[in-house]
Amino acid sequence: MTDVRRAAALAALAVTFAAAATARAQTQPPPFDTPAEKPALQRQQPVAPPPAATPPPAAPPPTAPRAQAAPPPPKPAVQPRPPQAQPDDADAIDDPKVSRRLGTRMTVPPPPPQPPVTATPPPARPPRAEVAAPPPLPPPPVQPIPSTTEVETGMPTLQRPYTPAAEHGFEPTLPRLKLALRRFDFVQIGASESSNGVAAPETFNSISVDVYPVSRIVRIGLSTAFGWQSGKWLAEGDYFATQSVSLGAQYGGLGRFVPFAEAFTGVGYMRRLQFDRTIPTAFWQFGADAGVEVYVTKVGFLSLAIGYLRPVNGFARRQQFTTVFVDTWSFKVGVGI
């Protein structure tokens, strides 16, 4: 029985040594050898045959107590790899092939340290004055107007009256130029053909061109006129030519209607015909007109005026200067821009 126990212990010890040798062969790194030395080492190291399989020991009888097997021996420590020889030059490359291709390694010194840059803080903004916002105005009340929609759907409908935009009124251009025709009564000179000895009346028509260099509320006009005896040709009747100046006022705030009033005076030449003889005479006049100018367009109008006129005719008679005059009404109509 003692021999059996010894054989079992020896078998267990042999298995332990074989396992430790296998583990050491797996954990130990291969030696750093050159390719030329590897075949020689492989030839020198004998190949260990695999351990023979040990038959399991026979089971001891159940009655006998089994002795405790001895503990396995401790595993040998792994020997460290021997340090490799370092080259004399610290910048040399370890690999000889790479060293022959690239040459000596160069070390670039690091850049010098830069001084720290301190960011300049932005200038402090002045405190912003807070302006209190005015309180919002309450919306105007809207009065709903009932309609058929509210009756049908039951929803209130808001309706606001339509207010059209205000249109600018008509602003006429005040008069600048006017062409007018005036008609008035005068008297004949020389022998009277009437039974009572009073000078016979004589009707004149005159056409004038009126220019207004100043035309605002106050207007100033210059008028050039030519008149002739009504119903007579120039060779058979009297005629005259005058130059007048006028001063008046007008109002342009009534839209298309511009009322006006002006006074005028002028002087000129008048030819009288008596007994087939031409008598040159002097002619002057003064008077006043009041009327209205009706604008058809912004720059075109019709003019109607009625006025008082006092024409005066002066001539030499029996070596003295004599004048005749008459107070009469005149009617003037014209067109202008």
Structure description:
By secondary structure, this protein is mostly beta strands. Among the domains are: 1-43 and 56-78, no CATH class; 177-191 and 198-336, Porin. Helices cover 14% and strands 35% of the residues. The protein starts with a helix and ends with a strand. 14% of the residues are buried. Residues 37-42 have low confidence and may be disordered.
Q: Quickly count the helices.
A: 4
In what order do the strands lie side by side in the largest sheet? 1-2-3-4-5-6-7-9
Indicate the low-confidence ranges by residue numbers: 37-42
The name of the CATH topology of the domain at 177-191 and 198-336 is Porin
| Helix-strand makeup class | mainly beta
CATH class of the domain at 177-191 and 198-336: Mainly Beta
Order of helices and strands: HHHHEEEEEEEEE
Q: What is the strand content? A: 35-45%
| Helical residue percent band | 10-25%
